[in-house]
Amino acid sequence: EAALSRRYVLCEVVSEDPRCRQCIEDRAVGLAVRDAIARVHGDYGLACCSISFTVKYLNAYTGTVLLRCRKDFYRLLCSALPFVRQLESRNQRYPCSLHTLHVGGTIRTCQKFLIQYNRRQLLMLLQNCTNEEERRCIQKSLLSCSLTEEQSPSGDEEDDDGIE
């Protein structure tokens, strides 16, 4: 079997509507992305991007989404992402956009990027605090978090040219 090169596109769901978080699910994101690809690149683009395209990871609380696609077609995928305008769930449409944060060859490189990105966001939050009470609230919420690292048995940690 030939080596499959993949790209992982790390995105953030941005929405003014707080109800949007409720409908951030694999299926809704996948459909919205496919719809945008079809509108921008037509049937050919959709067929190219659909090969090995999947929503690999999703965190509705933080709005973080990790998309996987073939390396050959990641530019087609990325160029269509700004055209995602809404997510649909239970016949409700929620306006939103997908903001591309990082494109990587492995899930691990995307995780490392996300850690650095979140650190920078937290620093900005702390610097923008207007009083000591806000600062204490943010620090308290940080200290209440716990981080556990899990190894993926599915082989998704492969390098760019990992064989699957």
UniProtKB/TrEMBL annotation:
Gene designation per UniProt: Pop5
Gene3D superfamilies the UniProt entry points to: Ribonuclease P, Pop5 subunit
Alphabetized UniProt keyword annotations: Nucleus, rRNA processing, tRNA processing
Coiled coil: none
InterPro entries: Pop5/Rpp14/Rnp2-like, RNase_P/MRP_POP5, Rnp2-like_sf
Protein name: Ribonuclease P/MRP protein subunit POP5
Family: Belongs to the eukaryotic/archaeal RNase P protein component 2 family.
An annotated GO BP: tRNA 5'-leader removal
Organism name: Nycticryphes semicollaris
Description of how the protein assembles with itself and partners: Component of nuclear RNase P and RNase MRP ribonucleoproteins. RNase P consists of a catalytic RNA moiety and 10 different protein chains; POP1, POP4, POP5, POP7, RPP14, RPP21, RPP25, RPP30, RPP38 and RPP40. Within the RNase P complex, POP1, POP7 and RPP25 form the 'finger' subcomplex, POP5, RPP14, RPP40 and homodimeric RPP30 form the 'palm' subcomplex, and RPP21, POP4 and RPP38 form the 'wrist' subcomplex. All subunits of the RNase P complex interact with the catalytic RNA. Several subunits of RNase P are also part of the RNase MRP complex.
Single annotated GO MF: ribonuclease P RNA binding
Function of the molecule: Component of ribonuclease P, a protein complex that generates mature tRNA molecules by cleaving their 5'-ends. Also a component of the MRP ribonuclease complex, which cleaves pre-rRNA sequences.
Gene Ontology cellular-component terms listed: multimeric ribonuclease P complex; nucleolus
Subcellular location: Nucleus, Nucleolus
